[in-house]
Write a structure and sequence with these properties.
This protein is an alpha+beta fold and 302 residues long. The protein has one domain. Strand 13 and strand 14 form a beta hairpin. The longest helix has 10 residues.
Length: 302
């Protein structure tokens, strides 16, 4: 089965689009338990890992979740009038594909892609406001190849197209003309699973944060499934409503347009404690109290 799952992972490998101005490298990691940089690759000749996991059988079909891991040496952050915000060493990104085929088949040709998950600032917030732009895309017509993935410049969030990338609430950008990396023309490595890492990728099961800044490890991304065995999406994605954005803008003394635009971002950067800008996870009671002391109304959005 391991050989079959590896073939599935290669069949549905994404087509990657990187910005003309992208200056960061994807990395190859050493075969060690602790993530260790071994070599860098330009994004138009990327080094990508994948992890294929059997979800189960439903309606006489076998379903798999395949995560494609793009590991970057740096996230350059977001430029504002107040300087660069959210820059950090290491950047673990992904997209994932839900594939299904006959339960009695071991032929990859009989399997098709049903849905794609695009990870874009998973669980990230600016103070109390979510800027998670991740999404599920369900194919109306099943596909026999991988998705197109557009990486935002410097931040490396994944988007289905440039239109959605440029409408991101996290000020994502992309410089045209971009460069394209086709499957079969870039390095694709089977990392195994958390329960059974490949010999080249023992770091996949490393549970602690990566680097000095404790960046979200691959383990955190893979420990919970994105779909159940019937193909139902499992990850809730909390998006700000237009009214919530307007409320945030009024708190920040910004004209309430209902869009989390660059001006709103810059104002949030100016008002928020430095450790609350581009933070991940839920707001703790201590953080909420600190923000309240600074006159920032906290609404728990995640």
């Amino acid at each position: 089965m391991a050989g079959f799952e590896s073939k599935l992972g290669r069949k549905f490998a994404p087509i990657y689009h990187s910005s003309r101005g992208e200056g960061n490298c994807l990395v190859k990691l050493a075969a060690r338990p602790v993530p260790t940089f071994a070599r860098g690759y330009p994004p138009w000749e990327p080094h990508v890992y994948f992890s294929a996991c059997l979800l189960g059988t439903h309606a006489a079909e076998r379903l798999y979740e395949i995560n494609y891991l793009a590991l970057w040496e740096w996230d350059t952050g977001t430029r504002t009038l107040l300087g660069v915000q959210g820059s950090h060493q290491w950047d673990t990104e992904r997209c994932a594909v839900l594939v299904a085929g006959p339960s009695d088949s071991r032929d990859p040709a009989s399997f098709t892609a049903r849905q794609v998950y695009y990870a874009a600032h998973e669980g990230v917030r600016i103070g109390p406001w979510s800027v998670d732009n991740s999404r599920y895309l369900k194919y109306r017509r099943w596909r026999s190849d991988g998705p197109n993935v557009y990486w935002s410049k410097g931040k490396h969030a994944s988007f289905v197209n440039l239109g959605e990338l440029r409408q991101s609430s996290a000020s994502d950008s992309y410089d045209k003309p971009g460069r394209v990396a086709q499957p079969g023309r870039y390095e694709l490595v089977d990392a195994g699973t958390l329960q059974n890492p490949s010999s080249d990728c023992p770091w996949i099961a490393f549970t602690k944060g990566w680097g000095e800044q404790g960046i979200s490890p691959v383990y955190e991304k893979l420990k919970s499934r994105l779909w159940d065995e019937s193909g139902r999406p499992l990850r809730p994605i909390r998006r700000l409503t237009e009214d919530e954005v307007k409320d945030a803008q009024m708190e920040l003394d910004v004209k309430p347009s209902g869009q989390f635009d660059e001006h709103t971002l810059e104002r949030a950067v100016a008002r928020l404690p430095s450790d609350q800008v581009w933070a991940t996870g839920k707001i703790s009671d201590a953080e909420a109290e600190l923000m309240a002391d600074r006159g920032i109304k906290v609404s728990r959005l995640m």
